[in-house]
Design a protein that fits this description.
- The protein has 119 residues and is an all-beta fold.
- The chain has no helices and eleven strands.
- Strands 2, 4, 5, 6, 9, 10 and 11 form a seven-stranded mixed sheet that branches. The chain has a four-stranded antiparallel sheet with strand order 1-3-8-7, with no helix packed on it.
- The protein is globular and about 40 Å long.
- 31% of the residues are buried.
């Protein structure tokens, strides 16, 4: 059984920074591309960032480009999301997700962690 466990989020002031991590266990980590999604109250879940299995390619939502950085450590079986210049509109539950390298849809999900940015 593959488990994805996000680190605790938190409350940060506008303009602040926060780093999320997601530990993956029970599978071969390099079999997965990884991503972060988020869901704000009353809104649908949206894509935030993704990274390929080797870390050589990343992608970002326009809303976070230049502020967020996704990375991974294939020795520690973890993926990270460094969030800088946080704004109140970044407030959401953040989810870690995984998909096999040769498929499109993310099929493994963490439980989510709350990030709240105070204005």
């Amino acid at each position: 059984q593959v488990l994805l466990v996000e680190s605790e989020g938190g409350l940060v002031p506008a303009g602040g920074s926060l780093r999320l991590s997601c530990a993956v266990s029970g599978g071969t980590f390099t079999s997965y591309a990884m991503a972060w999604f988020r869901q704000a109250p009353g809104k649908e879940r949206e894509f935030v960032a993704a990274i390929t299995w080797g870390g050589g390619s990343t992608a970002y939502a326009d809303s976070v480009k230049g502020r967020f950085t996704i990375s991974r450590n294939n020795v520690k079986n973890a993926v990270y999301l460094q969030m800088n210049s946080l704004q109140p509109e970044d407030t959401a539950v953040y989810f870690c997700a995984a998909r096999y390298n040769d498929v499109v849809d993310y099929h493994l999900w963490g439980q989510g962690t709350q990030v709240t940015v105070a204005s």
